[in-house]
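Hi R.,

Here's the chain you asked about this morning:
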Amino acid sequence: MRLARIGVAGSETPGVVLDGDLFVDLGDVVDDFDERFFAAGGLAALPALVAERADRAEPVAGRRFGAPFARPHQILCVGLNYRDHAAETGQAVPTEPILFTKSPNTLVGPDDDVLIPRGSVKTDWEVELGIVIGRYSSYLADEEEAERSIAGYVLVNDVSEREWQMERGGQWVKGKSAPTFNPAGPYLVTPDEIGDVLDLDLWL
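And the predicted structure, written out as tokens:
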């Protein structure tokens, strides 16, 4: 399934986009695609809800997509997670993951404006594959259990202010957490739609 949230910023309606770019509005039965929805097992109920409403699907054309999930508890990021990106920046592939967070107010829709911070001289962007965790997870036993915790995947634009990140104290959060610095979407795609997640092409 392709989960999406469509409408005016702050008042998006949750639903599912079908083949042919038709939107099935679920706003009457789903409050939002948020932490509470996923924790309650809401994904399992979606196929039946979509089937009941498929004949009322409306064209997506011309409507605004918000981020396909709302109010994340945390946006946790891994730096230099692609070998070619490490090489292009002249840095070694890290022996331990470089972790940083982006504040929740960085999250916006895929076509929303990115607000360049006052004084920015090195605003940059890069494509990332976002993984949305759909249940509380801690000290998982193995990779299979981790995979079972994934609600879906989302295209993310990781926007950064490189001077603030690299040249002014080495503060990754400072360079990456300005409001609107995390456009995401348009869809949250469930794992069954992906195939081999390690064999995806990403471009921006």
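The beta strands are 2-6, 13-18, 22-25, 58-59, 75-79, 98-102, 107-108, 123-133, 150-161, 182-189.

Let me know if you need anything else.
M.
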